[in-house]
Specification:
Radius of gyration: 15 Å
Distance between the termini: 29 Å
Number of helices: 0
Number of strands: 6
Structural class: mainly beta
Amino acid sequence: NATLLGSGGQPPYQFADRGSLPAGITFANGVFGGAPSQVGVFDFTVVLSDSGGRTVERSYSILVPTDLKLV
């Protein structure tokens, strides 16, 4: 798991994601979980909102490599 945190503004915070997460990955309440079952590059944006109605967003990319190996 990986967790994103908010700071500043007026808690409590709400998280949302836009875009494409790899199959098998979940995002809820700022926490990514699961294991990817799809190879590729996945672009998505996380939106953080505070109780005062302010929002901020940040874009991310996840690279899920193939399991192909040369030994």
